Amino acid sequence: MTLTLHHLNASRSQRIVWLLAELGVPHEIVHYKRDETTNLAPPDLLKIHPMGKSPLLEDGDVVIAETGAIAEYLMGKYDTAYQLHPRPNSPEFPRYLEWLHAAEGAVFLPGLLQVYFRRVDMTGNPVEAMMAAEREKAASTIEAHLSKYAYFAGERFTAADCLMGFQIQMADSMGALANRPATKAWLEKMRARPAYKEMLKVGI
After folding, report:
1. C or N: which end of the chain has fewer Cβ atoms within 10 Å?
2. CATH 1.20.1050.10 domain extents, the chain
3. 28-72 pLDDT, tens per residue?
4. What band does 204 get if pLDDT is binned at 50, 70 and 90?
5. Orientation of helix 67-78 relative to helix 93-102, angle to 10°
């Protein structure tokens, strides 16, 4: 049965659009639009999963949420030749796992909180400075890593690059890569990939 990705515009599900294009397995994409007033996902997603979030992946009777979980599921079931993820006994495997989940974890959270904080006046709130420091630490960690390695898992492209792409794209759109040459160079490599271009055609 064909894989189905439930894709919300302007969301992190673009990473799974990209990953599926890299994987090259047959799949369908069902598009959803955010509410223009609230910017929230439409209630139709609640019919697929009780959290009503995107991305959601359907594979036969399987419905799976959470970007990292979807990526691991796709790699385990469909990347049996290990083209997009290292073998578990590879020295790259721990790095791969770390960055695969950093994309939704400690590296990503400060940027997500910044999006939410824009909705309220945080002037003078000590949390604002704390989150700015955390964003700087995350950006510096990424820059140091990409100064040492060509890709997030090491010397070859993997699913971890797809998942980290959203955060780095956002940083670039805000002008935050001006002093991050290694991160900027990595992003330009990603933009040259055919599957990345396919993702853009689908819409982000």
Report:
1. N
2. 93-193
3. 999 999 988 888 899 999 999 999 999 999 999 999 999 999 999
4. low
5. 140
CB 9 within 8 A of CB 199: no
Taking CA atoms, 12 is separated from 52, 106, 171, 179, in Å, by 14, 16, 14, 25
> In this structure, what are the phi and psi dihedrals at residue 124, rounded to the nearest 5 degrees?
80, -10
Q: Where in the chain is the domain with CATH 3.40.30.10?
A: 3-83+197-202
Helix (H, G, I), strand (E, B) or coil at 84: coil
Give the pLDDT confidence of 83-137 residue by residue, as tens digits.
999 999 999 999 999 999 999 888 887 777 776 677 777 677 787 788 888 889 9
Distances (CA, A) of 77 to 28, 73, 80, 124: 17, 6, 7, 49
Mean pLDDT of 191-197: 97
CATH fold of the domain at 3-83+197-202: Glutaredoxin (3.40.30)
Per CATH, which fold does 93-193 belong to?
Answer: Glutathione S-transferase Yfyf (Class Pi); Chain A, domain 2 (1.20.1050)
Q: What is the pTM of this model?
A: 0.92
Q: Which of 191, 193, 170 is nearest to 21 (CA)?
A: 193
- Cis before 55 (ω within 30): yes
